[in-house]
Write a structure and sequence with these properties.
5 helices
């Protein structure tokens, strides 16, 4: 059961030797994965920033520092409208 607003998490285990081989912290590695998936249009801005454990504002700055454009289409707009409606109903 998959939901965009689900708080359910899936465990993703990355062997310590792989993390160490990258010479990155787990946080940095998550940011790199989020950037790559966003760039490939596999994640929305909101999903990628969540994966990176960053606010959307900070994640946008990370993308801008790498000259990665924000892709924001009709689907993203509709998802944002849905979120705003749900927030309003809280």
């Amino acid at each position: 059961m998959s939901s965009e607003f689900s708080t359910e998490k899936t465990g993703l285990a990355i062997p310590t030797e792989i993390v160490e081989a990258t010479h990155m912290s787990v946080s940095e590695l998550k940011q790199e994965i989020a950037v790559m998936l966003f760039k490939k249009r596999k994640l929305t801005l909101g999903q990628a920033s969540k994966l990176a454990d960053m606010s959307q504002y900070r994640f946008q700055h990370l993308l801008a520092s790498r000259q990665i454009p924000i892709h924001y289409g009709v689907e993203d707009f509709q998802a944002d409208l849905k979120t705003l409606r749900e927030i309003k109903d809280l």
